[in-house]
Amino acid sequence: MNKLKLNYTSLSFLPILVCIPLGYQLINNIHFGGFKLFQDFLISAFNPKIDNEIIITVIKRLNETILIGFFSWLVSIIFGAIFGIISSNIFYKIFNIPNFFYLIIRFFLTIIRSIHEVVWGILLMQIYGINFSIGIIAICIPYIAVNSKVFAEQLETIDYKSFESINQINAPKFSSLLTLIWNPIINTFKNFGLYRLECSIRSTVILGLFGIGGIGTSIFLSFQTLNFRELWTYLWSLAILIILSGLIFKKIKFNTTNKILSIFFISVFFITILFSFSYFLYFIFNNNFENFNSVSSLFKSSSDLGLFDFLKLILETIILSLLSTGIAISLPPLVIGIFNKNTSKIFIKIFAFLLRLIPTPVILLTLLTFNNPSVSLAALTLGLHNAGITSKLLFTNLDSQDKRNYIAMKSLGISKKTSWLLGLFSQQAKSYLAYCAYRSDIIIRETAIVGVIGSVGLGWQLQESLSSFAWQEVTLVLIAYSSIAIVGELINGKIKNSLT
Amino acid sequence: MNNNTVLELENISYKYKNDLILNKVNLQINSGEKIALLGKSGSGKTTLISILNGTIKPTQGEVKLFNKSFEELDRKQKSKITTIWQDLRLIEDLSAEQNVNCGLLAENNFYFAFKNLLNISSFKKAHKYMKLCRLHTSIYDKKIRKLSGGQKQRVAIARSLIQESNILLADEPFNNLDPKLITTIKNLLLENVYKNNTKKSPKTALVALHRLDLLNDFDKVIGIRDGKIFFNIKRNNLKKIHLEEIF
Ligand SMILES: Nc1ncnc2c1ncn2[C@@H]1O[C@H](COP(=O)(O)OP(=O)(O)OP(=O)(O)O)[C@@H](O)[C@H]1O
Ligand SMILES: [Mg+2]
User: Fold this and answer.
1) For residue B27, what is the enclosing H or E element?
2) Which CATH number characterizes residue A309's domain?
3) CA of B157 to the centre of ligand 2 (A)
4) What ligand is nearest to the CA atom of residue A160?
5) How many CA atoms lie within 13 Å of A419's alpha carbon, on the beta-carbon side?
6) With B168 labelled, which of A21, A54, A485, B19 sits at a CA distance of 20 to 30 A?
7) Chain A partners of B114 at a C-beta cutoff of 8 Å?
8) What DSSP character marks residue A342?
9) Residues B64, B103: one domain?
């Protein structure tokens, strides 16, 4: 008998075993009461509502979404760059600042990053009430920290020798700094800008589901009133927005040799900074903290949450992350490998696009029409959504790969599936797994979203504690969340290092 | 030590891990001297130059510029030294003229650095020195990564010349250059080309090189082997036996 060898290829498929406990719980929880609803939901995809009234609503809502998404993108990418600079090695070398501050600022950014924008959003809404700018702030807080990591990583690529030569010229320190970081910063804008814009539009939609406004709120309301045709109008218009913004962004060239354009970008840069600061001050001085009585309430013991319950919630959140990660890793290669025909590929691509497009809370709500809430259902939702994302990457890599091995194997009479596995996928497996490790960082954070809706884990507890103003519990939940995320990030970092 | 000394090394040793790369080096460089630094590959020439310009700190001993140790000097005083690196150390993603302008960063403010990156600063002075280095106008705005080896070499030289410093440290500056260019560049490096400049003091130069046929224009020759100075003599006194000792 052949032994199962543990290599990168088999490691990509093994996690599908999570489907066994997952499936067991799902089957136990099935109910047919809402099956008709589910059917309606699917059929409506091909029959969205289109009339004058809804088109006007769509335009209005999309406008809001674009505004929130765009401004949070702009602010978070600019401040991300600034924080990226002050959390990069080169900054500390040029200014001769002790390494201690470097560690402090990195730690601070890691903590902020570990909490999902939805959590920030729910938290801020509870304190300040629903407000247009709360959406921007909620997205900006974690995004600044995420972007700063991307920028800092790029800045680490600066050659130490060019630093030494600039240093030897003995220029003023800020001049040296600017000259050295200029190109890595511009390149990061070019390479990650579009992706981050897409991310902030998606986040805006998700925050919309929680009431911030924009198309997300409409999606949520139409779901609540079971208006599926309207729901699909919103979803498709969102699809068009995402595709269009991608096309437009590709057309924009960051040409740094064009003087007028450069001056334009620089002015946008400074205006954004000025505006953000003045808004920040306005925000601080003009809000009454109605619900947030005093900071001391954070530490007042008002909790009826036992230690045991708390540990159970943490465990639930970890299990939720593991199960979803398993699905996100193994489902795409499995499905692509089994249905390896050109026609079925198109269907898989469309399906994956839909999984990416439909916000996770909506996927979860649809699944809830025929299944009771459980960890498995939340994991399935999160896993499917993220499988949509990992499969996009896998498709892109497979399509651009050299196919000679695959063709040679097929011509030897080896079956199509086996040749795909050994000739094509096996060469991708390692980098695919490395990407999945990165993805699982995000999955851990996203457990908050499905937790709130699917009543599992810490996300649900957060919602509960917030609505009863139990600030001490909120603090506990947040600490637990960020600890899980930070530990997860450390483990994934180790895995990524061993894979690259 | 006399009044004329600009750079001085006192008992310098440099250790990297367990290797002693420079071993008790003593050296005085006087104003206006043109010194050739000879030594086979790996003998410590680049390390010596990095210590002279303050880029690496010696494990032992003291470096003095104008009779003061580096720690006592301010930025303006330190910028009196200019270096041409063996590995050039240009910024690959910037254009040739932007790289040359980097040499002017020390005497200008932050706004100049900013304008340089946006390509809206004046390149007049940069072009003057690039022209002196026989660089063709068509490469002025090309990125460094797109230039040939000899072109890069001359961009690095122009970046050093534009600093108009009177103390030049050059590490094999003639690499990648054809014989005609070598003559041109050698004159640029050793003579005072800053004619209409107020900095009247004579030019001091220490040049590491491998080509013995270029020694004629130097006053002194220093021979280094295994991190030790073997001889430090007037060029006229250089004998065959000296060279045999270090090569
Ligand atoms: N960064 C470094 N790390 C470790 N060892 C180094 C480093 N730089 C130089 N060395 C060692 O120091 C010694 C002297 O090197 P150096 O570069 O000064 O020689 P060089 O005379 O300039 O040689 P070449 O003519 O080849 O440029 C060599 O043995 C080299 O291996
Ligand atoms: Mg050398």
Assistant:
1) strand B19-30
2) 1.10.3720.10
3) 16
4) 1
5) 15
6) B19
7) 178
8) H
9) no
